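Question (not urgent): is this output format expected?
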Amino acid sequence: MENRFYHWITGRFPQNYLIKYPFRGAVIVTLFSFLFTMLYDPLNFHGNQIFSYPQLMGLYCFVAGITVYLLTYFLKLVPYFHSEEEWTLVKEILSILIILFGIGLGIYFSASLIDPQTPQWTFHNFIGSQTNAYLIGSLPFLFSLIINISQKVHHRSTESTYSTEIEANPVDIAEEMIQIKSKLKKETLEFYPSQFLYAESDGNYVMFYLNEESEISKKIIRNSIRQVEQQLTGQPHFFRTHRSFIVNLEKITGKNGNTSGYHLNLEGLSTEIPVSRQNVAKFDELFPLKA
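Got this back:
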């Protein structure tokens, strides 16, 4: 149970729509926050001598939208948050918290220009800005997060159903052992084709994910993904979907995406494997034959 939970929160997770598309996210946050404050006035604000209430809220919401765009853009420059293909639930939640905190800071510092009559630079106002940012700004992010969690659970359920069907109808086929040679002379990795789920490149190493007696194991060998691909040329069911991934087509339980790229669901795994744009056409030729 603990391993499944750990794998679920650290495995690949769909990126929040507002983070994936920074400009659209900024527009959504701006419009949602403005409409929310107009319909439901949760902040008990009023206009001042310079701006009416709608104008005041519009300016604050605009600041929130600009903050979302800038923070999302700069987060993608940070190595930890850079790759959408390595996105996890932990990164999702952490990035949302960072963005909401940034919105609070933006509101706090812009208040001196937007509403100069209100006393500024107080701890009370700082807490108020953060509270408003988390209460209102979090809603559009949470909406996208809930949708992604629902999709993740659905895919997990599909994987479990597929695994149950396989266990109920086992096929005993004689297989030839695959041997992967390492750059280290004395290091080799052996497994049967039916055990192989996928391989992922990690610097000078390749991580193999195998299904050994209904348990998912990870084996690491020093080699490049290109050399591993060459050693697997005799396996027609193995396909390099991405510069960093090789997948067993017979272990695919589902896919989502479009011509810009797919994400594959594999038997017994919550991790999604990417198919790059340039490999989509070739994948579509091969996968229907294995479905």
